[in-house]
Amino acid sequence: MRDEDELDRLIDKLIPEAKVRLLTGADTWATAAEPAVELRPWVMSDGPAGVRGPSWDERHTAVLLPSATALAATWDEPLVERLGSLLALEARRKGVHVVLAPNLNLHRSPLGGRHFECFSEDPELTGRIGAALVRGIQAQGVAAAAKHYVANDSETDRLTVDVRVGERALREVYLAPFEAAVAAGVRVVMAGYNAVNGTTTTASSLLSTPLRTEWGFDGLVVSDWGAVRTTCETARAGLDLVMPGPEGAWGEALLRAMERGEVAPHLVDAKVRHLLQQADWLGALGPVGRPSNRPRPRPAAVRDLVRRAAAAGTVLLANRDVLPLDAERLATVAVIGAHAARTRTQGGGSAGVFPQAEASVLDGVRARLRGRAKVVHVPGPGLGGPPPALDEALSTDPDSGVPGVLLRVLDADGIELHAEHRSTARQLEPPLPDGAHTVEIRAQLRPRASGVWTLGIAGFGRMSLRLDGRELLAGDFPRETDDPALVHVTPPVHTVTAELTAGTLPLLVARRELAPDTGRAVVVSAAPPVPDTAAALGAATRAASASDVAIVVVGTTEDDECEGRDRVHLRLGADQDALVRAVAAANPRTVVIVNSGGPVELPWRHEAGALLLSWFPGQEGGAALADVLFGRREPGGRLPTTWPAALADAPVTSTAPSGGRLVYTEGLHIGHRGWLRAGREPAYWFGHGLGFTTWEYEDLTGPAQVAAGESFTVRVRVRNTGDRAGREVVQVYLARPGSSVEYPERWFAGYAAVHARAGQTVTAVVRVPARVLRHWDEHAGGWRTEAGPCRVLAGRSAGDVRLDLEVELPAAD
Ligand code: BGC
Question: Contact at 8 Å (CB) between 191 and 148?
């Protein structure tokens, strides 16, 4: 790495225009080049479940990992570190230098639209898992970006919301995971869209203190995409790089502000220095080095790792002696539900990728039982939600006759400028040749069922949909949001219905006129006739009662969980609750798999024989779930977030700002802390998860006295009392009853995972870091550890504490 003097010499070579030009992206994902200092551009890409690469194109597929919630549910930092390295190798394969992950915002409310993309309700667990991902990514020479700094924990009005949060909660809860990422050496921090305590984060003093002054961050601060709307305020703050570019609030305006003396030149130099330092770290500064010859992982090894991760994050919430299934004893298995055949492998928004492969639960079960047992699939009632994009299964390119669609770009006179075959009608970045005026998607539909189909088109501006020449929809759909995720990734879908006959090949032609500021995306979609609910439930019930086991897969749709908007309720959509109830009543050996990225209400949870939570399990999810169902792997997951029985019980039941402000009234008492304080019982506590064996907590030992300001360790002896080997996540919580300082009722302090054979006794050594012992003293403006007794509790979840002891803490600053 170049030292300060060398960097100063490089900065001196740049005129103000050149400096300012570097501080805004060259395009959507890349930074600008500067030959005068041998600076090459570098590329950033989302993150976090896969690396999309600089283009949003189905031909550029990515390895899709389980969602962040699932990664946190593994409570397995070495595994997460390996997955981070896999992301980095994907980044290298795609010419990406910075992965826009991890997302370190917290599960403050189950309504958070990006819940699936964040790790946990707990700052300590989020920090540990996030740091592991950072280490894994960066070990391969690719930078990670900790986002979104800070308190960007929900989506409602996310571009403007002003989060009001007390200094102590900000420090102990919301900043803590970022502090952990910085301690792990994260190279990039992304400032969010939101404001904190009256100042938008891209202009906030939090970008200096604590980030640089206290934590010693020496990397680069980048804005979230489109988050910079002012020149001087943001330029005077610790922000270094405005994304995307080349337009933006800095550029010329920043130059003028410097000339007027409104932004000091040394501030701009500091930003350029951070940018050059970052380029240096990435190998994008100076003469081109030799390309590194890092070995590419074998595809089979990648699939195996991702599959193992999905099983490791799967949480067994309840089991009434149903799981694991014995494949040898099954003649017929019913696999029920729309999510069984179309398992939702990822959440919606900027995190989305085109996965290189996707296995549904049905695929996984079929593969496992092939040649052994009969597998019957019943889709159950319709799900509602937006119709899925046309793909090779449902449409044919009328030009080539190949499954897929024909994408054309026309000029203002309707003359074709470009045409190509594509496999999906989800076109977020159609080509834009000179003179491009209209994007058209042509598809010959291949309806499998006769009846009333739902057809849809998504995008902004003038759009039309024609079926066999007949106009079904035409109109102007103005852009009513500034949110880039909604404009460019998930624009609203406009639907119509049409009668289609199986066996025919009707021609669907969708058009969207391009216009400034309306994005490029156009998505054409179709959903089959909605089955009659009673008939669908009847078919599911019959299949369940005629089978040895029924596996029902239920979950959320993109309408429920997606970046850019929060959820409005936690219910499973359509008739999914009725479906589970009907199937469970028909067959006590019913396994329910919940396929959602965040909490949903499970009112029938005591009726199911077994209940598994798959999250958004990534591309190998179906295979991994089959591994778990048939006992090839243990469901290794433990909840990283408390699941309410009903939304109304949760500590935070609304994410709607009032007068532009969202007040974090609960202070420190987020997640399980809030449940404990309210004395309420959730459906499942933070930390809960059964695995396939049982455990006895036998003994807890620790020091009587802790050294001032130091970490300490406790030992928890546990015995595997079941009849198979297993992994237990031994958790430690702290409490300070009787203290004069306000603390949570108890709070998570650390964990250790142990493996044991049936009957074996093992000892978990859990480190309690000094940082979870201290609190932020608002009066003194510093950290303090209060002297006095501290209870240390060991158990299986925040609500299932088995052993406790007391240690004496000396005061520390
Ligand atoms: C999201 C970021 C993302 C960025 C680039 C924003 O809308 O909030 O998480 O990295 O877009 O896609």
Answer: yes
Residues 697 and 793 occupy one common structural domain: yes
Is the per-residue pLDDT at 291 higher than 80?
Answer: no
Amino acid at 45: S
- Pick the catalytic residue: 224, 240, 397, 566? 224
> What's the total number of domains in the chain?
4
- Catalytic annotation present for 5: no
Task: Give the 3-state secondary structure of residue 169.
Answer: helix
Atom of ligand 1 nearest to the CA of 148: 9
Q: Using CA atoms, how far apart are residues 764 and 717, in angstroms rounded to an integer?
A: 6
Q: Per-residue confidence at 89, pLDDT binned at 50, 70, 90?
A: very high
Q: Rounded to the nearest 10 degrees, how much is the dihedral formed by the CA atoms of 281, 286, 292, 297?
A: 40
**715 — pLDDT class (breaks 50, 70, 90):** very high
Q: Between β-strands 549-555 and 761-768, what pairing exists: parallel, antiparallel or unpaired?
A: unpaired
Is the C-beta atom of 44 inside 6 A of ligand 1? no
Q: Ligand 1 centre and the CA of 784: distance in Å? A: 36
Task: Give the mean pLDDT of 268-297.
Answer: 90
Question: Does 453 contact ligand 1 (Cβ within 6 A)?
Answer: no
Condensed to tens digits (0 to 9), the pLDDT of residues 487-546 reads 999 999 999 999 999 999 999 999 999 999 999 999 999 999 998 999 999 999 999 999
- Identify the CA nearest to 551 among candidates 384, 385, 341, 694: 341
Ligand 1 centroid–CA 243 distance in Å is 10
Same domain (yes/no): 426, 570: no
**Distance from C-alpha of 602 to C-alpha of 625, rounded to nearest angstrom:** 20
Supply the range of the domain harboring residue 407: 395-527
Judge if the beta carbon of residue 620 lies within 6 A of ligand 1.
Answer: no
Burial (0-12, 13-18, 19+ Cβ within 10 Å), 455: buried
CB 191 near ligand 1, within 6 Å: no
HSE, CB side, 13 Å, CA atoms: give it for residue 496.
18
Give 135-148 pLDDT, tens digit per residue.
999 999 999 999 99
In this structure, the answer to whether residues 80 and 149 fall within a common structural domain is: yes
Closest residue by CA, ligand 1 atom 12: 350
Question: How far apart, in whole angstroms, are the C-alpha atoms of residue 527 and residue 68?
Answer: 29
- Indicate whether 364 and 410 sit together in one domain: no
Query: Which residue has its alpha carbon closest to ligand 1 atom 5?
Result: 225
Whether residue 275 is found in the same domain as residue 326: no
**Which of 98, 201, 225, 353 for a ligand 1 pocket mutation test, highest count of atoms within 8 Å of Cβ?**
225
For ligand 1, whether the C-beta of 359 sits within 6 Å is no
Q: Whose CA is nearest to atom 11 of ligand 1?
A: 225
Q: First vs last Cα of the chain: how many Å apart?
A: 34
Tell me if the pTM is above 0.85.
Answer: yes
